[in-house]
Amino acid sequence: MDRPPEIQPTVARGSEHDPDAAISIHDLTVAYDRRPVLWDVDLDVPTGCLAAIVGPNGAGKSTLIKACLDLLPRVSGDVRMFGSPWRSVRSRVAYVPQRETVDWDFPVSALDVVAMGTYGRLGWLRPVGKAQKQAAMHALDRVGLSDYAARQISQLSGGQQQRVFLARALVQEADLYLMDEPFASVDAATEQAIVEVLRDLRSSGATLVVVHHDLQTVAEYFEHIILLNMRVVASGAMDETLTADNLRATYGGRLTLLEQAATALGRLSKDR
Amino acid sequence: MYLATSLLDILLLADWNTRVVVIGTSMLGVAAGVVGAFLVLRKRALLGDTVSHAMLPGVVGAFLVMQAFGGGGKSFAGLLLGAAIAGVLAAWAIPVLRRATGLKDDAIMGVVLGGGFGLGIAMLGVAQAMPGGNQAGLESFIYGRTASMVQDDAIGIGVTAVVTLLIAVLLAKEFRLLCFDESFGRALGRKEGVLDLGLMVLAVTVTVVGLQAVGLILVIALLIIPGAAARFWTDEFVRMVSLAGVIGAVACWLGASISAMAPDLPAGSIIVLTLSSLFGLSMLVGTRRGAVKRIIQSRKLRRRTGWQHLMRAAAESLESQGTDTWTIEQLSPLRSWSTSRLRALHRSAIRRGDIISCEDGYALTESGRTAADRVVRNHRLWELFLIRHADIAASHVDRDADMVEHVLGDELVAELETILAGSDVALVSPHALGGQA
After folding, report:
1. Going by CATH, does the domain composed of A21-271 fall within 2.30.30.140?
2. Superfamily of domain B2-289
3. What average pLDDT values come out for chain B (437 residues) when binned by 10 residues?
4. What is the ipTM for the molecules in this complex?
5. Could you state, in order of their start, the residue ranges of all structural domains in chain B?
6. A260-268 — which CB contacts under 8 Å span 24+ positions?
7. Mutation site for A-interface testing, chosen from B42, B170, B171, B184 by largest number of A Cβ within 10 Å
8. Of B1, B85, B161, B410, which cross-links B31 as Cys (Cβ 3.0–4.6 Å)?
């Protein structure tokens, strides 16, 4: 299948991964039920930056993050983190899933959830001990929730639940954080609190890749941007990349052709 | 009298054989409760039912195979092995069919359960027509056979249950992660397929063992009811899982004891009836989510709300009229409350010592004055906050404030005071009071 002619890759790339990149994606294609949602994604995120993934609904933002963590099967492509496959560096990578993906009625406290961030280092059989609980308390403190440690999670507000997820990632003490809509349905004060934490992490040398859906704040919060609509429309430093042309290419009607092709392809493979 | 002593004998395990059977069954209850609690939290409650029903063709199939090879078909261990194989196949078939067809789990489980059980019943018909088929006790797998259990069966059950329980306890932390947030678990490198397989093997083991005690139709109750009942008592994972084990044990203890005393009553149904009663009890009086607790909470809120409404109406009426007393007729138009409700509120406030009845109507006592002032102050603080920080029009603010102020805690009031600190506004109502409007 040929690439639709009007779409030109913004940056020409070789097949080599950039060894200095925190995350380097080459030729990634992901499909749901054979319907492609991400096409030929080539992407490098430099180490130590605060990067946003931006794009319209259904652009494949969450899919990109999940595919990087092997949560979804890839049709093709290769993802490297710090030059290695995810499996061999996974203790350096933390993940914040979307809040709606779990049942908040589950019988655990905020502290229990945050302590789950230590399970990676604990292994299967070692129980959560004093040190892990202390680390979890510290992380809760960093997101301003130390008073809520013992609360059952359904008694937290949406913004507090989001911060619990953030604290769980903090406890992992990772070098790369992948966050899926951490600002979804939180109030302005919580958003500020989260941004503070992200900046803290960034200045301690971590790399953050964050799915963000608010174009109003993206330039203020982030320094690197990935414009995504089924493929990478543009990616790079904020001031060079967040241009009217790129935005139009991401959100405008130009990509409907690609989507139609994807739908047709999905239908074709179902008929077969 | 005879009945009472013999029940006591059994409950206290005077008879050796009964003692072994009851203890073995109780261990099964603990294991089933704990494993079942994980299934409930994994939202796979019906997996146990599907697996148990699909075990029937395995049991009968094992009988037929043993018969064909001259084993006589009476080896109990052989029958259980058949059940286990069929159970694992059924549990394995569910995700395979899901992937192959794109159907949802509940539909697939219905297909596997119905298909498996139907096949089993048909095979049972064939087996029972064969010589020796009736004596093999195949039907006891459907309804259980606690009453005829002997020491060796019970020891087998008990040991298997304890091993299952130990594995479940060792993996409890991983199951907590799997049940709560499997994608995060995968991002930590956990293979959720392996954990699900482990949970499934535990469930199949408990089910196979449970077949002897309660039979394949009722074993689902042994798995699911303890976990479901435990949820009414606690919001904490470990406590919920442990309590499920205790509930399972108590039900099995009682069920096995009663059926030892009255062998005509099928033990399976007694165990399940005990479980259902414990569930009903938990649903009503459970300390976390029980119905009684929720009713009491909502009545408490209603009473407090009513009292706060009265205190504020009284204080604001006094403020706008400039008097020391008020009458029911004066308060009546301030809110949409019926005169009888208003009278009831006055009566309860008098009982609390907040107001007194006098010649001209009612008046606040000293403690009532303090309380009323606090209620009014909280209301106005909240109104001020809404106007200043939430952009709500002054004319609408009363109703919105009215809803929230009843749940304002001391913490929140203190925070409001900080936010609004330094405001030169003495706390006067931002809108016209009802009496003046």
Report:
1. no
2. ABC transporter involved in vitamin B12 uptake, BtuC (1.10.3470.10)
3. 62 72 89 95 90 93 85 74 92 89 90 94 88 72 72 83 90 94 91 88 90 85 95 94 95 84 78 93 92 90 87 87 85 84 90 87 89 85 74 61 63 71 58 53
4. 0.84
5. 2-289, 294-419
6. A261/A1, A261/A4, A262/A35, A262/A36, A262/A37, A262/A39, A262/A230, A263/A35, A265/A1, A265/A34, A265/A35, A265/A36, A266/A31, A266/A33, A266/A34, A266/A35, A266/A36
7. B184
8. B161
